[in-house]
Specification:
Rossmann fold; single chain; 4 helices; 9% helix; mainly beta; Neuraminidase; five-stranded antiparallel β-sheet
């Protein structure tokens, strides 16, 4: 019976042997990003070349433009202009070119070798004034991060939402028999390998402070939950009980994780401290309860259960009380993910034989299908709540997709060789 009921939910993939733990830069296959669709209203912006950036290994202005274009929110007005740092901005002339905003800046080589000072200003054409500016010290390696932070500032000042270009993503790649847990910038650059294995790795989940990733590895001939510290490389076993240990999800304060364990028979939701101690069972029913997710306030858990006869999404209080069903449309709904503001639920629904990404407005109950593919899984919200990353398949290739919560802007992220899946979008970094 356990085996039959377990087949209703996400299957496990086997067992494995741990090979190598590493944190070195990984530079084999190139990540490829395709963008389609734009926002309902695009903001026309001029991003000038930064004076002095030709002396740097990478040009911040090009990175900023690429970030803004990927968002689908901005329309870049082409220009070859490079403004001097003390130049007077001709607002009237720029308005005639259709610009609503102008971003300019400079890169100055510091006295110390390989060090730079990056400055930028943002101007509002309608207000005819500077509305933001930043100055940052950067090394050769951190120039990209400086550019991402500038793009974040532009996005926030002009949309009201925090930018996510300086955040990171985690995901699983597979090439041949090798599985890798990788971490990269939100644009796919600066890839690093946190774990290599000849056996499956699944379910990566970022800690709220962005320094750790919890995941499930099959190296011990069974699924075991680990936490990997990305700074110290220390790895901690969080759940290694009899049966399956799976689906780790962090509490908002980073002190606990929700996990799904079958130690007592049918898979149930448990809560455990981030050091692996203090295990406490949350759900108690004669059904499978799995894929737990903390609400943003930490007072509730969303989870998948087949207690109604087929998988649906439920919600319970942090003490296992007040259980209520959340999804009612569609006969098979799994993989709940809650938006950072707690207003939206993303999940995968099986309808018409396909698995597709849906978004439920928890305030008004309206549901929207966000994908056009039919093999979707593992949704993950961006930390500003405006985008969802998920795994899907196009032809025979497994890839990642990003879609805005209104469904208008779409991106596909793929590898030239190998598959990429199980995404988790990291938090804002302090």
């Amino acid at each position: 019976m356990q085996k039959k009921k377990g087949s209703l939910l996400r299957p496990f993939f086997g067992v494995g042997l741990f090979l190598l733990l590493a944190s070195q830069a990984f530079a084999q296959e190139k990540i490829h990003i395709e963008i389609s669709g734009v926002g309902a209203q695009q903001i026309p912006i001029i991003v000038t070349g930064f004076s002095g950036e030709e002396s740097a290994k990478e040009r911040p202005s090009a990175i900023i433009k690429a970030d803004l274009e990927r968002s689908g929110v901005f329309r870049i007005i082409d220009t070859t202009t490079v403004l001097a740092e003390d130049a007077v901005v001709n607002y009237d002339d720029l308005q005639t070119k259709g610009a609503a905003a102008l971003a300019d800046g400079s890169v100055k080589r510091a006295v110390a070798a390989g060090r730079y000072e990056v400055r930028y200003s943002l101007h509002d054409m309608a207000k005819k004034q500077k509305i933001s500016s930043l100055s940052m010290a950067a090394s050769e390696k951190s120039l990209r991060l400086s550019a991402h932070k500038i793009a974040d500032d532009i996005y926030e000042k002009l949309t009201g939402f925090k930018g996510i270009f300086s955040t990171r993503i985690a995901y699983i790649t597979r090439s041949g028999r090798e599985y890798r847990l990788e971490v990269a910038d939100a644009d796919g650059e600066n890839r690093q390998v946190a774990l290599r294995s000849n056996e499956p790795i699944i379910s990566p989940s970022w800690s709220p402070d962005g320094t750790k990733v919890a995941y499930v590895s099959f190296e011990a001939k069974k699924p075991v939950v680990y936490i990997q510290n990305l700074v110290t490389r220390q790895r901690t076993v969080i759940a290694n009980y009899k049966g399956n240990n799976s689906a780790p999800s962090w509490s908002p304060d980073g002190s606990r994780l929700a996990v799904a364990l079958s130690r007592d028979g049918l898979t149930q939701v448990y809560i455990v401290n981030a050091n692996g101690q203090g295990l406490r069972r949350l759900t108690k029913s004669n059904s499978i309860n799995t894929e737990p997710q903390f609400s943003p306030d930490g007072q509730s858990i969303y989870f998948t259960s087949d207690r109604s006869g087929a998988p649906q999404i439920y919600k319970t209080g942090i003490n296992g009380d007040r259980v209520s069903r959340v999804t009612f449309s569609g006969g098979y709904n799994i993989s709940p993910r809650i938006s950072p503001d707690g207003k939206h639920l993303a999940y995968v629904s099986r309808r018409g034989g396909g698995f597709q990404l849906y978004l439920l407005d928890l305030v008004n109950g309206q549901e929207q299908r966000l994908s056009g593919t039919t093999k979707d899984e593992s949704p993950s919200f961006s930390p500003n709540g405006q985008y969802i990353m998920y795994a899907t398949q196009a032809g025979r290739r497994k890839l990642l997709s990003i879609v805005s919560i209104d469904g208008r802007v779409k991106q596909q992220i793929s590898l030239q060789a190998g598959d990429i899946r199980e995404p988790s979008w990291g938090p804002f970094m302090k």
